[in-house]
Amino acid sequence: MYSRGSSLSSRPSVLELISPDASCLEHIHHSPYVVRRRSLQPHLGETHHVSRGTLNVLVEQVSHHPSVAAIHVTDANGIEIIGCHPMAPKYHGASVDIMVRGQRQMRLLNKGEKYVMEHPNMVVRFLPIPGVHWLGNITISCQETGLEAELCYGEDYFYRKNSHHRSVTGTIFQSSSRRAIYNISGNWDRAVTVKDLSNGKLTVIYDAKDCLSGLKTPILKEPEMLLPSESVVVWAEVSKCIMSKSWDQAKEAKTVVEERERELARQRKARGETWVPKHFTVSQSKESGWDCFPKQKWVPTAPIIVPA
């Protein structure tokens, strides 16, 4: 979400369907990390709250077993995103595969359009070359425009780059007739192009260099406004040890965080209390899976700011 130089609401609706899912970025903050092959799982109620301009993002861990993150994004330009994503990590020694289930809805409030989208899976690779990759097939649909898109995030080739490395390909079509109107091709770490099948015109809709070249490091603008549940607070000591490559100390700091959460769980159980998310109302069923609804209409400005 932070890499967009212009407002999403200023772009044609059809391009909303196939713009590479930059909103995946905020999930990095709620994905498992590893300290000496031991994962850092977000704890129950952990949050990440960040702003860039008029765009405000709030993520809360609403379940620990299974791991489920809820997200709410609002923008003064008339954009709202709500999502609820169960995540299932699998560890393979040199990498972590994270299956991201669930859907998110993006509403363009000024246009009266709602886009329902799935989320690609994530691969966090440590060896031989560290990196994060998106993989899998997703669909995006909009009932109001009658448009649908099918996207495929390509394979992870870590020894060499080729046309399939970090690729995204797909088609936009009319839902009723299944008639294709646009083709999409490119690489989400380089550039993505859309081809109008009616006239063959090619348009670059995403240029990673252009979008990411000006991306700045987030800054803590108002330390006193940080919630105790904020990720940078919860894992502050662990992060400090990791940055200094003090692995044994990082492991000890991680254990402190985990034991504190276990103790809180024991206290809730002793009192007969059921934990309730602070920022979302959450429901879950075998038929419809996990669903969430934000308790606030708008996400407030965060103490953590990404400079524009």
Task: Kindly summarize this structure in a few lines.
The protein has helices at residues 13-18, 208-212, 231-234, 236-243, 247-271; strands at 33-35, 38-40, 47-52, 55-63, 67-75, 79-91, 95-100, 103-108, 113-117, 121-125, 131-142, 147-153, 168-174, 180-186, 191-196, 202-207, 219-220, 280-285, 289-294, 304-305.
Could you name the key traits of this structure?
308 residues, alpha+beta, 6-stranded antiparallel barrel, two-stranded antiparallel ribbon, 5 helices, globular
N-to-C SSE string, H for helix and E for strand: HEEEEEEEEEEEEEEEEHEHHHEEE
User: So what's the overall shape?
Assistant: globular
Helical amount? 10-25%
What structural class do the secondary elements suggest? alpha+beta
The first-to-last residue Cα distance is 12 Å
Oligomer: single chain
Q: Give the strand content.
A: 35-45%
Identify the strand order in the major beta sheet.
6-7-10-11-9-8
Low-pLDDT runs = 1-37
- Radius of gyration, rounded? 20 Å
Number of strands: 20
What is the arithmetic mean of pLDDT?
83
Largest sheet: 6 strands, antiparallel, barrel
Could you give the topology of this structure?
Blueprint: H1 13-18, E1 33-35, E2 38-40, E3 47-52, E4 55-63, E5 67-75, E6 79-91, E7 95-100, E8 103-108, E9 113-117, E10 121-125, E11 131-142, E12 147-153, E13 168-174, E14 180-186, E15 191-196, E16 202-207, H2 208-212, E17 219-220, H3 231-234, H4 236-243, H5 247-271, E18 280-285, E19 289-294, E20 304-305
Parallel strand pairs: 3-20
Antiparallel strand pairs: 1-2, 3-4, 4-5, 5-6, 6-7, 6-8, 7-10, 8-9, 9-11, 10-11, 11-12, 12-13, 13-14, 14-15, 15-16, 17-20, 18-19
